[in-house]
Amino acid sequence: MLPLLFLMNTAAAQEASGYLENLIQVPIGVSGAPLTVVERARPTFSAELGDRAALVTTVDVALVQGRDNTSELERLVDEAGLSPTFQAAGQSWPTYENEVLRIDRFQDAAIVDRLYLDLYRPKVDIRIGRQALNWGSAFMVNPTDPFPQVILTEPWRNRTGVNAARFTVPFGDWNQSALVIATSDVFDELRVVNRTTFVVGSADLSVLGAWNQTFEEESDLIEQASPLLGVDVRGTLGVGYWVEAAAHFEGLGQDVGVYEEIAVGVDYSFPVLESLIVTAQYYRSGREAPELDPLAQLSGQATTSSDPFAPFFSGENYLMGAVNVGVTEHLSAGVLHVQNLDDGSALMVPTLGTTLGDRWSVTLAGQIPLNTWGESGELNTAEEDLRFDVPTIEGEMASLDLNDLVPEATLTLQTRFSF
Q1: Which end of the chain is more exposed for a tag (fewer CB within 10 A), N or C?
Q2: From CA 144, how far away is CA 135, in angstroms rounded?
Q3: In sequence order, what DSSP letters do the residues of 346-400 get, joined into one string?
Q4: Is 295 within 8 Å of 388 (Cβ atoms)?
Q5: What is the pLDDT of residues 9-67, one digit of tens each?
Q6: What is the DSSP letter of 98?
Q7: How far apart are CA 192 and CA 94, in angstroms?
Q8: Would the pTM of this model clear 0.85, i.e. be above it?
Q9: Interatomic CA distance for residues 265 and 286, integer angstroms
Q10: For residues 343 and 246, what is the distance between their CA atoms, to the nearest angstrom?
């Protein structure tokens, strides 16, 4: 522990950057606590350790107050008279030493989100430790990303770090191959990935293979494996274009399942104002998704997919698009739209941002679920689908209405000071 602290202190003395941030989130059309407030400090310390090595550490400290969906669900269950039934089922609500911040101790609010060592060798670059990993050329979703996360629908989020060792080897004039060996925080999972990129004319062609292995007692290892094979092409032909596709294999036992995932899109920049960028993409997932139970989802009892590379969205066909305008040097606006083509539900994320000098930025964002057609869907559930009749321990039926947990829209005001 002492060597690590010494290195962190050395890094802090060498170079520090990061930001301080305040988030205010206001859900529209719900009852209970009116808003959530988040204060975050996210400093990054880096140090050069000789000519061919560097150490980087990012600490994330976040304090949260106000509205909490678990607390609001507990309130609705109690108002419906279902608390005795909930307790009889052996369930309990979380409790904290500090109920305002929802933590037991200050360390619960602080994580080391990045901690990695960079080694620059003549023939290979190596990064070892907790790091951000993201691959793929597609917009918002990346079929060939073996560490999938969707950030654009929540533009204030940071990408979660991954415990990994990454080896990048360049070859030829512009080509490179990257090997990643990663594990989970509790070391019950191993993920091995290789992505090799070739420059072919005016396009980049990448091929990827990934293998995820979970370790469970008394289970066949081969049935716990989940391979992923993918190809990614990005180039320019008057407009920017990309084609990103992957084949998923769910388990390799006798009942192996295979499904496809593909994203095809274009973008173009117009000489309007400071900038005008238009993006459009068709996305398809061939995964057969299970029926989603809103009650199980909100209570944290929903089952997760056995596929670690599973798509974020549960439907099949989508159109995704965005328009981003640089109005002036310090003012920008944009709108992101995700349209489920099968059930008609959609999500719109408008943003308006400004910078104040070199260090301050203020962004207002919204999340607005819609039904372009149809009455209920993945991205906007109808009110009647959020009302349940639940049997009680007395043998009667009680009504539970979850509409108070699902906002008609959510507004987020983000104020950030960078240093």
Answers
A1: N
A2: 7
A3: EEEEEEEEEEETTTEEEEEEEEEEEESSSS--SSS--GGGGEEEEE-TTS-EEEE
A4: yes
A5: 444 446 899 999 999 999 999 999 999 999 999 999 999 998 899 999 999 999 999 99
A6: B
A7: 35
A8: yes
A9: 18
A10: 24
The model's pLDDT over 285-317, given as tens digits with 9 standing for 90+, comes to 998 765 655 555 544 444 445 577 888 898 999
Q: Are 30 and 410 in contact (CB under 8 A)?
A: no
Residue 339 identity (one-letter amino acid): Q
Residue bearing tokens 């369930």: 91
Q: Residue 201 is which amino acid? A: G
DSSP 31: -
Q: Which two tokens stand for residue 331?
A: 């003012």
**Strands 203-214 and 189-200, bridge-based pairing:** antiparallel
Degrees to nearest 5, angle at CA 374 with 373 and 376: 125
Please give the helix or strand (H or E) that residue 4 lies within, else none.
helix 2-14
How far is residue 62 from each of residues 59, 107, 115, 327, measured CA to CA in Å? 10, 10, 18, 32
Burial of 142 (0-12, 13-18, 19+ CB in 10 A): buried
